[in-house]
Amino acid sequence: MYSIFDMKINKGSRGFLENIKYFPKSCKWAMQRMKWGFSDYDIMDMDAYLEELIPDMISRFIDKQTPGQYPVNESLIEKAGISIKEYEDLQSNMSEEGETKRKEMAEKFGQIWEETLARIIFCFREQDERICTKQNEYINNYYALIHSGNKDEEIDRKYWDRERELEEYREKMLKEGFDLLYTYFHCLWW
User: Fold this and answer.
1) Residues with Cβ < 8 Å from 131, sequence gap 6 or more?
2) Is residue 65 a part of any domain in this protein?
3) Would you state the pLDDT for residue 26?
4) Is residue 104 part of a domain?
C-alpha cells in the first residue's frame, strides 16, 4: 500500500531524521507485503487499510478490464429489467433479430456493471471522513470555541448531532459497499 519511500505514511509530513528512523521498518513492511500481500503496518489500522485498498483495487480492475467483457449473474439480469427465462431465451435465439437484441443487452449489462463498480468505489471512499462528500459544517465553530475556552451549548449540540448523522451515513455506505461486494464477489475477474 505504501512505498518504503513514502514520506507521509499516515503520520503527516516527517523530517529527514524521522524518515531515516522509519526506513528499516519500511523495508520490513515492504518485504512482508511481497511475501504475504500485507504487512504488520497494514494490520495495525486494518479498517483504514481496507477502505483505501478495496476502492483502489476496483479502480485498477476497471482500468485493466477488457472492454466488452463483463460478468452475467442473476443480480445483473434483474437490474437490466428482464427475467432469467427471457435472458436464456435471448441467448438461444440465433436469428438476426436475436443478435441485435443480444448486442443491445450486452451494452446494457456493460453500463450496469460499470455503474455497480463505481458505486462500490463510492461507498468505500465515503468511509474516509477526510474525503467523504458530507462534512460537519460546525467543526470550525466547535474547535474555535474549544480553543477560546468558551462554552456554547447550541454549537456543541449541533456539532455532536451532525457527527452522529455523519457516522450513521458512513455506516450505511459501508453496509451498502459490502452488500454490493458480496453480491458481485465472484464477478471480480478479468
Assistant:
1) 125
2) yes
3) 84
4) yes
Would you state the cell numbers that stand for residue 4, as one nine-digit string? 518504503
Q: Judge whether 123 lies within some domain.
A: yes
Domain range for 179? 45-187
Q: 139-148 and 153-183 are packed helices; what angle lies between their axes, rounded to 10 degrees? A: 140
Q: How many domains are there within the chain?
A: 1
Q: Round to whole Å and give the CA distance between 117 and 125.
A: 12
Q: What is the pLDDT of residues 41-94, one digit of tens each?
A: 888 888 888 888 899 999 998 888 877 677 778 888 888 888 888 888 877 877
Query: Cell triple for residue 90?
Result: 435471448
Tens digit of each residue's pLDDT (9 = 90 or more) over 100-128: 888 888 888 888 999 999 999 999 999 88
SS (H, E, C) the chain: CCCCCCCCCCCCCCCHHHHHHHHHHHHHHHHHHHHHCCCHHHHHCHHHHHHHHHHHHHHHHHHHCCCCCCCCCHHHHHHCCCCHHHHHHHHHCCCHHHHHHHHHHHHHHHHHHHHHHHHHHHHHHCCCCCCCCCCCCCHHHHHHHHHHCCCCHHHHHHHHHHHHHHHHHHHHHHHHHHHHHHHCHHHCCC
Neighbours of 19 (CB within 10 A): 15
Going by C-alpha positions, the residue among 19, 25, 55, 22 that lies closest to residue 40 is 25
